Amino acid sequence: MSRKENNTAGILAGLLAGAAAGVILGMLYAPEEGKETRKKIKTKANDLKEEAKNKYGEVSEKVKDQYGNISSTFKETASSVVHTVKDGYDKYKDQIVSKTNDIVKDVESGLNDLKGSDLNDLK
Asked: Which keywords belong to this entry (predicted)?
């Protein structure tokens, strides 16, 4: 979860807690019967609980979407890196094989020259 989403979730939780506290205090100081006040508090608490569930669902969906986006971007980047490394490997492998073949030919030529000069020395 990003820092911005953490801040948003924290602010949201603070607002909900503040609203709940304000509603409860307002009802407790209202000139109504205790039974009515408790009923209003219970109703408001249920409303706030539902609102919190909805906000949690929204934040959860945003987090899932962000995870999906990040995951997809990472997979694409990893695939690109693998492709680049493979291309580089193939390129340098071909160069090394070519250079190795040139060296082998030079060594064989040198050995043949040595063999030829040894035979001429014997004559």
From this structure: Membrane, Transmembrane, Transmembrane helix
